[in-house]
Amino acid sequence: MANVNDLKSSKFLTKHDVDPPITVTIKSYEESNVAMESQKPELKWILYFNELEKPLVLNSTNGQRIQIVTGSGEFNDWIGKKIVLYNDKTVSFASQITGGIRVQVPQDVPVQQPDEEQELGMNFFCRKCQKNYRELNNDTCPDCGGVDVIDMRADPSIQGN
Q1: Taking the domains of the chain in order of start, what are their residue ranges?
Q2: Which of 62, 120, 133, 153 has the CB geometry, 3.0–4.6 Å to 124, for a possible disulfide?
Q3: What is the pLDDT of residue 117?
Q4: Global pTM value
Q5: Around Cβ 118, how many Cβ atoms within 10 Å?
C-alpha cells in the first residue's frame, strides 16, 4: 500500500527503509559527498551492503555500535560482518524526537569486545540497547530493562582480538 513516505526519494537509506528491521552484511565503504544539490560539499563515510542497493550514511553512534559488534574500529575489519539496521523511534535531532536508523547485533552473532573497553573494565553488554556496563546489580539492563545481557568476562567468544 502506498503512503506519504513513497513521495520522497533518497539515494541513501532512510528510517523507512529499515522498518521492519533488516539483517545486512557489510560489503564496502567510501567517503562520499552527502550534501543536497546546490549545497556546499559535505563529506561523510557511507557503508554498502550485499543485501541493499542504497548505502547507509555512517554517524558516530552507529560507527561505535558497529565497533562493538566487530571488536574493531577499522572499517576494513567490518567487511563481511552482519549487523541489523532498524528504525529507532527514540532518536532525536535538533531537540526533536524524529526516529532514525540504528545498528544492533544480530541475535546469532557474538559480540566482540574492543581492547579499549577491556582496559576500561566493561564487563556486561546489553543486546537490546547496545550499551556496555562495568557492573550490574541483577541480570537486567538498568537502561532498557532488557534481559539479554551478556557477561563478557565469562564468555570467551565475545572477548576482544
Answers
A1: 1-108, 110-161
A2: 133
A3: 45
A4: 0.65
A5: 14
